[in-house]
Amino acid sequence: MSHLLNASTHAPSDAASASRWRWFAFASPRRFDPLARRFAPWFFAAAIVFALAGLYVGFLVAPSDAQQGEVYRIIFIHVPAAWMSMFIYLVMAMYSAMALVFHTRLSSMMASALAPTGAMFTAIALASGALWGQPTWGTWWVWDARLTSELLLLFLYLGYMALEAAIDEPRRAERACAVLALVGSLNVPVIYFSVRWWNTLHQGASVSLTAAPTMAMTMLVGMLLMTLACWMYSIAVALVRVRCILRERGVLGG
């Protein structure tokens, strides 16, 4: 009887432990690689579908803006890119923290794989913002809080990639880049809240989790579709890039 009681007492914890082990098993490169190979094409396909739908809604269905006319349509490129630039850096920081705490090399590789995509979206956000700002503000660039902090985010992405390339020993490079990613993540809330903390040329957020959107529903749908396209693309490219990193570092064979 005592054996039965002990077995029943430890069963839930053993089940929970087994469940956690199944999740950690995907940190194994040999388990992760076939999943990445299988799912990457699906994420690429989803990115294309969402992008086509978003561009159709944004440029052909959404109405003109009462104040800015047609030039506002750059938001369907600018806003999703800006959102993804911040989101990807936070995901990089999360993977970096996991790498430092759990010593999972795959987490470091995921962070490394995301960095070029994050830098690309940051550059797109800055370039499209300049194209939007010239007819709206009358200038290509102003040193306001949001633009400056977004530019700093681009430097953080570039610094992360440069630091990784500068250190020959992969383990040391992973630890140094993880620390940089975690410290740099403090810049993300500065970007997001800059329009509240300082007097900037940027308008307040048109989309919020705590309030109704201040734009037409078709505009919002187009923006969200483009954001999903960017998200699916980021996942697909990261999966492909991680598979390349695994082979470059000799973790897996060709």
Note the main attributes of this structure:
254 residues, mainly alpha, 8 helices, globular, disordered N terminus
Explain what the structure shows.
The chain is built from eight helices and no strands. It is an all-alpha fold and 254 residues long. The chain has a domain at 73-200 and 213-254. Helix 4 packs antiparallel against helix 8 (217-248). The longest helix has 33 residues, at 29-61. It is globular, with a radius of gyration of 22 Å.
Short account of what is shown:
With 254 residues, the protein is mainly alpha-helical.
Helix content: over 70%
Number of helices: 8
Following the backbone from N to C, one meets helices and strands in this order, namely HHHHHHHH
- Residue share in β-strands: under 5%
Question: Using DSSP, what is the number of strands?
Answer: 0
Roughly how many Å apart are the termini?
55 Å
Most strands sheet: none
Low-confidence stretches: 1-12
Averaged pLDDT: 84
Q: Which class best fits the helix and strand makeup? A: mainly alpha
Radius of gyration: 22 Å
Q: Quick one: overall form? A: globular
